[in-house]
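Exercise 7. Given the components listed, write out the predicted structure of the assembled complex. Treat all entries as one system.
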Amino acid sequence: MNVLKVRWWTIGIFVLPCLLLYIMMVFVPIVVSGYNSLMLWDGIGPNKTFIGLENYRNILFNDPYFWPAVKRTLMYAVFSMLEIPVTLLFAILINRYVRRGNTLVSIYFMPVILSVVIIGQLWKTIYNPLDMGGMINGILNSIGMEEHMTAWLSSPKFAMYSLYIVSLWQYFGYHLLIQYTGVQNIPTDIYEAAKIDGADGFKADRYITLPLIVPVFKISIVLAFIGSLQAFDLIMVMTGGGPAHATDVISTLMYNSTFQEYKYGYGSALAMTLVIICLVFTVLINSVFKRVENKVS
Amino acid sequence: MEKQIRKSEKNESANRRPLKKTALILTAGVLAVGLAACGSSNSNGGNESANNSSATNTGGTSGGDSGKKVTITFQNIYPDATSPANKMMKELVAQYEKENPNIKIELDSLNTDQQKLKLKTQAASKEVPDITIVNPAAQMKPFVDAGLLAPLNDMLDQNGLKDTFQKGLLDYYSFNNNVYALPDGNNIEVVYYNKDLFAQAGITDVPKTFDEMLEDVKALKAKGITPIAIGEKDTWTGSFLFMNILLRTNGGPGFLQDVLDGKKDFNDPAFTEATDAFQELVQAGAFPEGATSIDANAGGNIFKTGKAAMFIIGSWETGNIDASSVAGKVGAFSFPTVNGKGDVNQFMLAPGSGFAVSANSKHLQETKDFLNFFMTNYPKKQFELKNAVGSGQIIEGDFKAAGYSDLAINILDMFKQVTGGDLAFDNTMKPAVAQAHLSSIQNLFVQKVESKQAAKEHQDAFAANK
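Answer.
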């Protein structure tokens, strides 16, 4: 391990600030949440009662809103992950056919730099009922499909899907940028060599681009997955988890029980559940990709 | 060849060594500064307090005269610089700082929701600001139980402050004979209506019964006018209206108290009847489409921009309506009787948010002295700024002569008729039960529910959080 040619304590000192921050900002809160999750506590007073795993038991078996929220959260993740292959396709197409691809990618990237609150308000006006100037309903009305007009965000049936769409729209550019950079980083001489061997166009994509893009693809998938598990701000801005819990995901449920219902312990237990789900799926995704990587290369 | 490269690398690294050291020191320095910055922002004003502990003892009615600087943090919910409340607060604070040059009042102005959240976070780490805002009765009880708030009895006796409050109002902020907060107002729920829109729909008189109200809703709807403005994303709005119906179907106040006392439960006919009546309003199309994704302010604006005919809300909106484009066209009436039950002189009561003092304040005496000054001058200032409708304190002054609107006079007359009423659901029940109630009512906006089912949801939540 002499590759770096510096003493171990030098490395230690330079890593320390980051490590300290990480421990303080990530590790300690998780441990404290874990401790609180075993308590019956309103989050205000000194009266904490130790109740063991009672909170977890209630979450898993007695909370009528937990499992639907898990389902919505996982759906969120699935939709976000399904978006990645599409962005990869776009990245390949842009790389091949568009001369100044960077400009296009930058334009796609724009929604990402907008604040979620702005995006929420923007899409709210798009989804609004017709008499409040809703754009979608306006279009439906003008092409004679009045019977399909709905108050999208207030319908228990459509509200969640309306939110998925906004999220997909916002993060399209983000993942496109990652994929595009990945595609660009593949050395052109490989393609040239393949061209001589007779592999061109989509054949080259299948045997060169796909295997070489897998690591980048994986990053996108993991980011999309974790990002959607933590989806919170957009939902708070647009529906607040309503109507009547129809758009509650794990994180909004956690917020509501901690801060609205004054059940700090219960909220912490929900947070821990979310952490566990995150960990399990991250490991799962990693192992799946290891297999995929072995297969395509 | 390789050896040579190695050698040159080694040389280079030797040359770089002093640079490395500098970098190290720099990093350490930056880190230290960062930590220090964190520290100071956390204990906001705490540093100063350490220097001033002596000042705490010297405080008289006019605040500490020791000449040493004292900083009082005043968390409040008046962030909007254009609102009369914000003006009132800033003027009073400036006046006090002028009279007591050693006292500095630091304002922490937040939106209601932000403030609630911030206070909860601060409470969890016992760093409640010197003055903060709490809500009456059940909502402030956890803070009192946790010993975070200071009793204000002694300070209420100074300068006759106690007698300025309306009789019985302080009860909502009292626990075990101690007053823990002073209300910024006292309001009732009324139905504001737009006279022009009523005339357009051919409605000649305000509804006296719920059935008449339903007829009016249908007449308005037929004219393409939104009958009742509401923003139900912030669930409390629908609950406030629902509770007014319940106040009628129960034949008087006290339903929730009876439930708490075990004399009734949510399966009571009064409750299911109220649920059914509420659903009739929804079915008749009384509320704007997509109400559950409109937030409370935006909901109010539907009325204030003249697009909706009625607005059922606390009288605190009077000033805002007078400042809006429908000013002069608006009247108000009391919520009608439902199925012949109830008394129109009973109202949903909304004792205002209360100013509370942290029990752990480093300058308890100065803080109390300031709050005493603030509350003593509060009604006068509010009156001047035409924001005194719904004041919790007795105001001596001729509203009409002072230029208050007809609507304001109308509301003030209604105050005189009040014979009793109920508090909002979340001021009466535990937070967890209140949340179940709020989402159950929100659900009524988007789908038809058997009233028995809604009652069961309430009863289950109540039983689970006893």
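Discussion: Chain A has one domain: 33-113+164-296. The longest strand of chain A covers residues 39-40.
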